[in-house]
Design a protein that fits this description.
By secondary structure, the chain is an alpha+beta fold. It is built from 13 helices and 17 strands. Helix 2 (about 20-30) packs antiparallel against helix 4 and helix 3 (about 45-60) runs parallel beside helix 4. The longest helix has 18 residues, at about 45-60.
Length: about 425
Amino acid sequence: MDTTSDRDALPRALDALDADRSAARADLEALVRIPSISADPAHTPDVEASADAVAELMREAGLDDVRELRAGNGHPYVVGEWAGAPGAPTVLLYAHHDVQPPGHAERWSSDPFVPRERDGRLFGRGTADDKAGAVAHLTAVRAWLRTAGRLPCNVKVLVEGEEEIGSPTLATFLAEHAAALRADVLVLADAGNWAVGTPGLTYSLRGLTGVDVELVALDSPVHSGMAGGAVPDPVVALARLLATLVDDSGDPAFDGCLDGYEPPSAEEHARLTALPLDVDALRRDWALRPGVELAGDPAVPLAERLWLRPTVTVIGIDGHPIAGSSNQIVARAAARISVRVGRGQDPAVLSGALRRHLERRVPWGLQATVTELDGVPAWHCEPSGWAFDAADRALTAAFANRARRSRHQLLRGAPKKA
């Protein structure tokens, strides 16, 4: 291209993006209608259909060498690239096309897989996390290629199919395809803005681990009127056991929960405390009920509690549903415990500590089985360098509002090719 077209390339691409909004929304809505629930084997065909749809969007955007790949028996990843800028940096764009289960679908105000607009927002599973990320990436690529005929840098796109189940094959996948995915910088579109109209740049994310715990008292349920008072209730036993995981403020309190944790440096602490966290706005965003207190030691800055320190959450619990319940003592109860891993902590060490904590405290001699789950460590980098600076300039120009360097959009960079 000549100098004039180079100078005009960005405005033309931005104009094309504006003109393409309706088409981009239609692309997103079509993806949202596919219930690509990676955690449910019954939806494996839907995850595959979602991958097919993403691959077609990549081709329509103008990417080359579009492929659906797997590692072992994992769900499909979709990759594509444009490599027409020799000597320019290479940017790897990441998103994922799988979604969380909808939970109690009857508690949704509309079908979770039928996108609905309310108050200027689009609601449905995946409208934000993270089919919107994939569509945003590909819409930008499409706008550039349709107007300038080229991109200002080399671009690779990776859209994962199993992020919502902890990316169990990601390490294997990256090892197998490291050369094909090699890039100077990774942009990950899988988080929210600091606030509406204010973007964020993430430089630290907690990891994840956990355990499943099952308590068994009986071979089969017994009538509470006949055995109650002598036979221990597994659900009550589980409740007592789970209560040992946190202290009175709601902070993790199981043995070894802070082992290896690296607290923020003085400089980072100053950055965190300088962020204008609006607690009332957060309560509204979370739909926290009046009178419900925030968890965690109030002496620890809220930003550190939200983004850096380990936490523990019970994300699933089994006993007997209220519907169909009767006056009986159930035979077993179980729970899935999720732990957010702090910076510096080893997820395997943490899940092992949690397992041992639970095994030592099982009430009334119930049989206990504690199974450690796969984990991933926390990630952290210093929010400086050419990649962060470029993202800061771009986001400031796009939003007319300076980006906050926090946990709301991830851009990870390296000064040289890896």
